[in-house]
């Protein structure tokens, strides 16, 4: 179960990073996210 959960968390992390990377700087700013913060935000959402 731990391996499956870790894999699912990793998938969620990658999807979140991908979605945020596709956003424009303006869209990210509207959400209060800097481009440098994408990985931190994705990590927090996934784990």
Overview of this protein structure:
- Pfam families: YjiS-like.
- InterPro entries: YjiS-like.
- Residues 3-39 form the YjiS-like domain.
- With 47 residues, the chain is mainly alpha-helical.
- The protein has one domain.
- Helix content is 79%, strand content 0%.
- It contains three helices and no strands.
- The chain has helices at residues 2-22, 25-31, 38-46.
- α1 (2-22) runs antiparallel to α3 (38-46).
- The longest helix is centred in the N-terminal third of the chain and has 21 residues, at 2-22.
- The protein is elongated, with a radius of gyration of 12 Å.
Helix content: over 70%
Unreliable sequence segments? none
Order of helices and strands: HHH
Specify Rg, calculated over alpha carbons.
Answer: 12 Å
Write down the overall geometry: elongated
Number of domains: 1
Helix-strand blueprint:
Elements lengths: L1 H21 L2 H7 L6 H9 L1
Question: What can be said about this structure in brief?
Answer:
Residues 3-39 form the YjiS-like domain. The chain is mainly alpha-helical and 47 residues long.
